[in-house]
Amino acid sequence: MAGYEKMAPGVFRIRQEVRKGWVPFAMNLYALPGTDGLLFDAGSGTKGAVAHVARCLKDLERETGSRVRQILPSHAHWDHFSGASALADKRPMRVLLTEAMVPLVRTRACYRAAYREGTSALRPRAGALNEACRALGGRLIDEAFSLSMGIRAVTGPFSPLAVGDHLATDAGTWEVLAGPGHCDAHIMLWNAETGILLGGDNVLSHITTWLGPPRSDLIAYQKTLETIRELPGLRLILPAHGRPVTDPVKRTTQLIAHRKKRLTEIREKVEAAGPRGLTGRSLVRHYYPRMAPLKRSIAQGWIEATLLYLLQEGDVARTAEKGLWRYHPL
């Protein structure tokens, strides 16, 4: 049985799963065969995950008579770039990176530093000893997660790519579009001939896109959704996770409304709290009262991003109280 699925003429989905360690994790990688061809997103860097993708590409090239010789991550999150160098070592492939991705993915240290929160929406910095203990605990968790999920830097040679560039494949020509918000270094591939968008993490069919500090931007994400919705002839979005989005205008409209609703909700909850204010942690408990701590720490990202946005815009103020930030209306 082939490990890939035809999504449209010249567009094939390779489903990659990582099941060892923490929680099952699934990715959609998209192979676009051609004279050089392209793999959009590289997935995990575990040996099993990389071997699976390499086998699929070999079988796909045999079936189509075309080649897949380039790898392009959609953005600088681990599940989109970690397999790139390992695949390039196993097969005759070259890695493509945008200028914005390069400082984030070239070493593990750079990646950790790029996503280490400079400021927290939930708590102020503690004393030096407490902060050192937290940093050590975070580093141990990071190392365990990295080993389990196969997080690997893009250490080998790469070729530069820019927004506005075009890539030719058997499925036609794909334009590189900017898609910041979820991550500042996010790109998408748009095929105006077929109306297909490879959207990375920007539009998912079954859940909302994760947003959170330090590299998400609520307003940039809103603008990206509006850009996607206005693409002429858009008929299908192929996301990095989950099912295809077959009614993309409806789905992007839903997501735009959802983000506006959440922003309004948080602003109104702070206003309703009056002079006493409320803590970010109380908002997390309100939205996720029964969620397991690990999942909640991920899900709360949008709450933190929203509070930091309101603080930046001057809509709220905050004070430190008993090791937590308390937010007050202005």
TrEMBL record:
InterPro entries: Metallo-B-lactamas (IPR001279), RibonucZ/Hydroxyglut_hydro (IPR036866), Sec-metab_biosynth-thioest (IPR050662), WH-like_DNA-bd_sf (IPR036388). Residues 26-241 form the Metallo-beta-lactamase domain. It holds the Pfam family Lactamase_B. SMART domains: Lactamase_B (SM00849). It comes from the Bacteria. This is Glyoxylase, beta-lactamase superfamily II. The lineage of its organism: Bacteria, Pseudomonadati, Thermodesulfobacteriota, Desulfobacteria, Desulfobacterales.
